[in-house]
């Protein structure tokens, strides 16, 4: 992932009606601009509007409102009513659909019997990031998508909201559910403090193994802290999930500590096992002219700023074009709308049928007034005075179906979408330099090859999980991979001590 950007940008306020005004016809509201440079990233200059302190305060408040949660938490009565809808299925499909195998019927029954803390313990025993997943997990295609009521009544039990109700109750009560096991005398190094690495650390501490976590960034949590859309949950909440992990005690978390590939061999000598949870690198390149122009951003850099600085200091263009068709593209586009962009367009080279974004994410963009352009491949980024001013696209057609079908361009269909900010949302590159520096590590198509049952790699004592083995799945998948690797490490260490 790229470096975070910082600036002293100020923009005028824009209320929700104006923010979505291009649906009805834009008002003449003038946006303030920005002239400073971000670290390693120059920023286009917009017209600057001087604001009084009260205006700046009002704008900050409106931005906070724009980024408010889309779905409010359930009240106690609402949770009891929703829990009563559950059929408590035997061999419940919802449980089988959850990558971490949370016992959904059990925790819902506990909520129904007014035991939210018991429900929270059931959830967190399977998924220590249960609070985050309750808010950001694609429940529509996992547990709720498998709910029997979804078929019978066309309305599934709101499992995600019930899960949040329980984990929020645990947070409010400050209950520490887990204790470290007796000291095993074994030491494990973990590279990366994302959901996979921290879950692995927590599971290993349950078994009494000493754990040291090395994290290159200044805040722990990985994509869970930096890369989730801020309207799903904010940085403070993400860091509270890390504190829950650390509450078990005995996790030595070393921030701002980058471990290069060559140093991993030494860690394998110094520790009894090493877990690789390094995630992915920067956004994939478009490979077109103008990609390095001022005003061209990587998707995660754009999202990072909403987690690392006040919203009224975040940079956003007035006319934003997002290139890509996945959930990250949606997160970027919806964030741009909330930051005050006057017009946001997502351009995807294939048809809507091949769009990788989830359907409910797509519907969210429609609600936000975001425009989609399908079957459009970028040819070059157009510039004016060295600053991005648009993207030239060519129409495409597919020879076949599916995302692997060959694309053909349509002659004479070139067209330019005007933009003062272009954001690349194409997925992330693997950290091949680091991976190739580990002797004997098997890597295929940029992914670390592991035994999917226990996270074991081709290198003795080295395990892996998270995005470096899956190329950008969901947080819940990373949690499960961290659990499996921890179990594999514990089994290996236990066999050596026998």
Short description:
With 498 residues, the protein is an alpha/beta fold. It contains 20 helices and 16 strands.
Topology:
Layout: H1 16-19, H2 53-66, H3 76-83, H4 93-97, H5 104-112, H6 116-126, H7 130-136, H8 143-146, H9 148-152, H10 159-173, E1 187-191, H11 195-206, E2 210-214, H12 223-226, H13 235-246, E3 251-254, H14 261-270, E4 273-276, E5 296-298, H15 299-308, E6 319-323, H16 327-339, E7 343-347, H17 359-367, E8 371-373, E9 376-384, E10 387-399, E11 406-409, E12 415-418, E13 421-424, H18 432-436, E14 443-444, E15 447-448, E16 462-464, H19 467-470, H20 475-497
Parallel strand pairs: 1-2, 1-4, 2-3, 4-16, 5-13, 6-7, 6-13, 7-8
Antiparallel strand pairs: 9-10, 10-11, 10-12, 14-15
Helix pairs in contact: 3-5, 5-6, 5-10, 6-10, 7-10, 11-20, 15-16, 16-17
């Amino acid at each position: 992932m790229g470096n975070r950007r910082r600036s002293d940008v100020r923009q005028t306020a824009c209320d929700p009606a104006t923010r979505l005004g291009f649906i009805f016809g834009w008002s003449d509201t003038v946006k303030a601009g920005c002239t400073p440079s971000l670290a390693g990233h120059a920023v286009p200059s917009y017209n600057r509007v001087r604001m009084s302190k009260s205006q700046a305060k009002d704008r900050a408040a409106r931005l906070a409102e724009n980024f408010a949660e889309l779905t409010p938490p359930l009240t106690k009565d609402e949770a009891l009513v929703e829990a009563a809808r559950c059929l408590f299925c035997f061999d419940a499909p919802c449980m089988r659909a959850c990558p971490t195998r949370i016992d959904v019927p059990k925790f819902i029954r506990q909520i129904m019997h007014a035991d939210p803390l018991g429900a929270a313990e059931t959830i967190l025993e399977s998924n220590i990031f249960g609070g985050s997943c309750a808010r950001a997990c694609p429940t529509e295609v996992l547990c709720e998508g498998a709910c029997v009521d979804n078929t019978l009544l066309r309305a599934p039990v709101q499992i995600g909201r019930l899960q949040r109700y329980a984990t929020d109750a645990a947070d409010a009560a400050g209950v520490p559910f887990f204790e470290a096991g007796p000291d095993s005398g074994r030491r494990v190094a973990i590279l990366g403090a994302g959901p996979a690495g921290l879950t692995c650390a927590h599971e290993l501490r349950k078994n009494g193994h000493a754990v040291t976590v090395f994290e290159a960034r200044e805040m722990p949590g990985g994509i869970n802290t930096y890369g989730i859309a801020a309207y799903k949950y904010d940085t403070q909440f993400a860091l509270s999930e890390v504190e829950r992990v650390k509450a078990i005690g005995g996790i030595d978390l070393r921030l701002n500590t980058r471990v290069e590939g060559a140093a991993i061999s030494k860690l394998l000598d110094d520790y009894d096992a090493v877990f690789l949870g390094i995630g992915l690198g920067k956004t994939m390149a478009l490979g077109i002219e103008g990609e390095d122009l001022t005003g061209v951003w990587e998707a995660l850099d754009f999202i990072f700023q909403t987690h690392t600085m006040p919203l009224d200091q975040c940079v956003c263009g007035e006319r934003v074009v997002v290139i890509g068709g996945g959930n990250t593209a949606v997160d970027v586009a919806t964030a741009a709308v909330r930051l005050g962009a006057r017009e946001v367009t997502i351009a995807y080279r294939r048809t809507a049928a091949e769009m990788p974004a989830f359907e409910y994410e797509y519907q969210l963009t429609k609600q936000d007034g975001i425009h989609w352009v399908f079957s459009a491949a970028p040819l070059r980024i157009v510039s004016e005075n060295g600053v991005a001013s648009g993207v030239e696209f060519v129409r495409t057609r597919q020879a076949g179906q599916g995302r692997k079908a060959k694309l053909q361009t349509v002659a004479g269909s070139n067209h330019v979408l005007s933009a003062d900010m272009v954001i690349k949302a194409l997925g992330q590159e693997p950290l091949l330099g680091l991976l190739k520096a580990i002797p004997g590590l098997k890597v295929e198509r940029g992914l670390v090859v592991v035994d999917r049952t226990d996270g074991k790699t081709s290198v003795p004592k080295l395990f892996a999980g998270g995005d470096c083995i899956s190329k950008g799945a969901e947080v819940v998948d990373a949690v499960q991979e961290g659990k499996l690797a921890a179990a594999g490490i514990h089994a290996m260490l236990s066999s050596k001590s026998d």
